[in-house]
User: What shape does this take?
Amino acid sequence: MNKVVLVTGAKRGIGKQIALTFAKEGYDIATNYIIEDEDVENTKREIEQNNVKCFVTKCDISNFEDCEKFVKEVIEEYGEIDILVNNAGITRDTLLMRMKEEDFRAVIDVNLVGTFNITKNVIPYMIKARSGRIINISSVVGVAGNAGQTNYAASKAGIIGFTKSLAKEVASRNILVNVVAPGFIQTQMTDVLKDNIKEEIANSIPLGRMGTVQDVANVVKFLASEESSYITGQVIHVDGGMLM
Ligand code: NAI
Assistant: This one.
């Protein structure tokens, strides 16, 4: 039987590359979407081309009942969840002076509460199995802060505190919990930025380029592997040296 990885929001971007990277390693994939579009079908097909299964369903991670149902369905389908990657996330950038309460709450609800909602439902199965890996996707911004992203930075810093606390709670059950903090990665999330802004940021990165989705997926794969079995509660920065 294949091992199972649940990656939230894998229809595109970083999540998609994480799912494809695990699929290439022979893992069965479970993922969710909030808006059904052609990306959902295309990604499912690409994953299945690796001769693994892909279970995909609608689930808004900010909704606890949705997450409960989703995780139950994954267990019914596969019987276990070996690795959880909390990837799904949103931004609603603006300066605090202009930020509406709903924009603050929406970002916290998806990025931070969403991570809680999925993890809370997955953890009983990992505890029962006395094994598991949880990798939460934070951001360089959660550590360094960023003007225009008080909501996003708070959610991503929250993920780090959540991860370290959970890592301490479940270490004795052989469950390892870590954070990957990407820097500036080329995806649809960053495509919305103007070219001159992208260039400016890329020039400020010591390695001189934006990161790729594969740069992030490689580290997630490492944190799910046997090679990282003595690493828990850590924040691994994948940012070309942006933050050091
Ligand atoms: P993206 O916008 O391309 O993908 C985000 C995914 O999350 C999509 O599949 C979307 O459908 C899903 N999603 C959003 N809200 C959801 C909800 N309520 N329920 C279920 N799924 C939902 O973004 P990208 O760039 O691939 O980002 C992935 C993760 O990496 C996010 O957590 C993001 O904050 C983080 N990140 C991205 C960086 C970048 O430069 N692109 C840098 C640092 C962190």
In short: The beta strands are 4-7, 28-33, 54-58, 83-86, 132-137, 175-182, 235-238. Residues 8-9, 11-15, 32-34, 60-62, 87-90, 110, 114, 137, 139, 182, 184-185, 187-190 surround NAI (CB under 6 Å).
